[in-house]
Design brief:
The complex is a heterodimer of chains A (418) and B (190). Chain A has helices at 5-9, 14-25, 33-39, 44-52, 67-77, 87-104, 108-146, 150-179, 190-242, 246-249, 252-257, 263-270, 282-296, 322-330, 336-343, 351-367; strands at 31-32, 56-59, 62-65, 374-376, 381-385, 388-392, 395-397, 412-415. Chain A has 418 residues and is mainly α. The longest helix of chain A has 53 residues, at 190-242. In chain A, the strands form three sheets. Chain A has a three-stranded antiparallel β-sheet with strand order 1-3-2. A three-stranded antiparallel β-sheet of chain A has the order 5-6-8, covered by helices on one side. In chain A, strands 4-7 form a two-stranded antiparallel sheet. Helices cover 49% and strands 13% of the residues of chain B. In chain B, strands 1-3-2 form a three-stranded antiparallel β-sheet. Chain B has a three-stranded antiparallel β-sheet with strand order 4-6-5. In chain B, strand 2 (59-63) and strand 3 form a beta hairpin. Chain B is globular. The model of chain B has no long low-confidence stretch (mean pLDDT 87). The chains are: A mainly alpha (418), B alpha+beta (190). Chains A and B meet through helix 9, helix 10, helix 11, helix 12 and helix 14 of A and helix 1, helix 2, strand 3, helix 4 and strand 5 of B.
């Protein structure tokens, strides 16, 4: 993204090239008009043309490049090299020296001369601070937005992080100098009050902006490094999958036993339903059909189950304790579903809530450690009712003889094949 | 598992349990849709109250990076053989999308045709896609395979379909659940 300086200037017409180059290289300073004119005595026409064209601004006896041209040149050059944060410190030291000189001078004429130097110095300092702050901001934005190579981007941002830190440190030093009221008696000079106060405000604003920018850069670098680490881990994992060593060389089985990634099978439970022929009640069939629409036939998120916006009156929820249910189930001769139907708590009065309770308890028991003690009939019953077909396998307790142990039973509700 | 009588019933416990406990949704994300987003913020603001109610029942709501989900605190089945194999397959699907889409971050809009194009342009990737796809038909097209993976991600709750039939999806913050899992994987040195 960097452009060679000479090749960039070569696209500017020869009569304007050196003027622009000169003003760009002094962009942090306030150059008096007479100095600029003296520098380009032979090119007065070109200078005047650039001023008329708005590329140069002449104001209060100073000449400078317009902001857009400065931004364009900076962004074309690539920036890190151009971003000079230490100039502020040097200029602040000069200013401080002027103040000290002021204290040592007694004649009115000498003091008046040094007052002018201080005035100029304060204004330049404020200009430099403002310029550097906007440079950092713009250049960092540009790196984040346009640099495609993550390694170059990270490298540059680290450089900006360092520069921003230096900038903050220099502002702090500058602020300390201004606060040294013992030395800075010259500030009492009426002509210096205003630029000193402006500089003070600028320093404070720029410090806040730099601190904020510093936070953004550090966070970005942190995220970028995290991403790099994540991608390299993913690649390592994929290599292990390829060589079929993943389970042997990682702690995945321990993590899974600990319940991690449990949503993968919990998601299946959400699609699991009870066999409908056990219910023989119309409202339950309707319930199953409604579930079918929700789980299998959702057309878009607008049709997804929605919630009331009104906050309902708080109602308790009923959740079965798998340990207790299983203990009682073991002494029964029924299959798990039949047992749950017979023993559902009477306090759950609403039919739909009862359905949910039974469905959930079934899933809770088979998904718990007690599920390992269940036997499952290895049959896939299928029944079609009212446009929906259901299939299921039944769970029995371990004591049942002649039953085969199988996988967790899934009772899946499917729309009838067309 | 019985609730102590002194615990106050939080106002939206039923809705929240419906969604997270009974599995209508596996997650509530900060970029969930409509009422689910409301529930996300309701929970974030009152997480302690909800957990105080749920913990004696054997549940707890876990707060991840931009998402919430419910975990059971009672002992669950420790059989891991089949589960681990499925987790590995899921990681493969995740990696395939990550690679094909050049990232899979919360809030990102993704398109099925981009994944399809990425798989069409690499035979190795196409092979991996066919391996993890749930389409077993020999006639299944690349589009069918891609669709099967995206549908799976929607079902589990990591994606939300934006426009029906246009293959446009939004990645939900719950995708960080997978990232957290991968970060927890420790690889043993050879």
């Amino acid at each position: 993204m960097h452009t060679d300086e000479d090749s960039l200037y070569s696209i500017i017409r020869a009569e304007y090239r050196n003027i622009i180059r000169f003003l760009f290289s002094h962009r942090y300073e306030e150059l008096p008009s007479h100095i600029v004119y003296a520098q380009f005595l032979a090119k007065t026409n070109s200078l005047e043309f650039l001023i008329r064209a708005g590329q140069l601004i002449e104001e209060d006896g100073f000449i400078y490049l317009n902001d857009d041209l400065v931004k364009w040149l900076e962004s074309s050059f690539g920036i890190s090299e151009g971003l000079n944060v230490s100039g502020i410190d040097e200029r602040a030291k000069d200013t401080y020296t002027f103040y000290l000189n002021y204290e040592n001078l007694t004649s009115e004429a000498s003091r008046s001369k040094i007052t002018r130097q201080i005035w100029r110095s304060l204004k330049e300092l404020a200009h430099m601070v403002r310029g550097t702050q906007s440079d950092i901001q713009r250049l960092v934005d540009r790196e984040i937005t346009y640099e495609n190579d993550p390694l170059i981007k990270l490298d540059r941002l680290e450089l900006y992080a360092g520069k921003t830190e230096d900038f903050e440190r220099n502002i702090r030093r500058c602020q300390r100098l201004l606060e040294d009221t013992e030395i800075m008696k010259a500030s009492l000079e009426p002509t210096l009050r205003s630029p000193r106060s402006r500089l003070s405000k600028q320093l404070s604003r720029s410090y806040s902006a730099a601190a904020e920018m510093s936070g953004i850069i550090i966070e970005y670098i942190h995220r970028a490094k995290e991403n790099q680490a994540f991608y390299s881990k993913m690649n390592e994992i994929m290599d292990l999958i390829q060589s079929k060593e993943l389970l042997a060389r990682t702690n995945i089985e321990a993590l899974v036993a600990d319940g991690q990634m449990g949503v993968l099978w919990k998601a299946e439970a959400a699609h699991t339903q009870l066999p409908s022929h056990l219910w023989e009640k119309e409202h339950l069939l309707l319930k199953f059909q409604e579930k079918a629409r929700q789980f299998n036939l959702i057309e878009s998120h607008q049709d997804a189950p929605s919630l009331d916006h009104v906050i309902p009156e708080a109602e308790p929820i009923y959740i079965a304790d798998p340990a207790r249910v299983f203990k009682r189930f073991q002494s029964s001769n029924k299959d798990l579903l039949e047992f749950l139907i017979d023993t559902a708590p009477a306090k759950i009065s609403k039919p739909q809530e009862k359905t949910d309770y039974l469905l959930e308890t079934f899933c809770l028991v088979v998904g718990s450690q007690y599920g390992e003690q269940l036997y499952y009939e290895n049959i896939n019953r299928r029944i079609a009712i009212d446009g929906c077909s259901y299939s299921y396998a039944t769970a029995f307790s371990k004591d049942g003889t002649g039953r085969k142990r199988g996988t967790i039973p899934t009772v899946i509700l499917k729309p009838l094949a067309q | 598992m019985n609730r102590p009588a002194s615990v106050i019933v939080p106002p939206r416990i039923k809705e929240i349990y419906e969604q997270l406990g009974r599995g209508q949704n596996q997650f509530l994300s900060d970029n969930s849709y409509g009422a689910l987003k409301e529930l996300y913020y309701e929970l974030c603001e009152n997480l302690e109250d909800y957990n105080a109610y749920l913990e004696p029942l054997g549940y707890s709501i876990h707060c991840g990076n931009g998402f919430l989900h419910m975990i059971t605190t009672t002992a669950t089945s420790k059989e891991v053989g089949d589960k681990s194999a499925r987790v590995v397959q899921f990681i493969e699907m995740y990696y395939l999308l990550l690679e094909a889409l050049d990232g899979l971050e919360s809030g990102q809009t993704i398109f099925a045709h981009v994944v399809e194009h990425a798989c069409n342009s690499s035979s190795e990737r196409a092979e991996r896609l066919a391996r993890v796809s749930s389409c077993t038909s020999p006639d299944a097209s690349m589009r069918d395979h891609v669709q099967s993976i995206l549908v799976r991600f929607v079902q589990v709750g990591f994606l939300r379909e934006e426009l029906l039939g246009h293959g446009q999806y939004i990645v939900l913050s719950s995708i960080n659940y997978v990232k957290e899992f991968i970060q927890n994987i420790e690889v043993e040195a050879k």
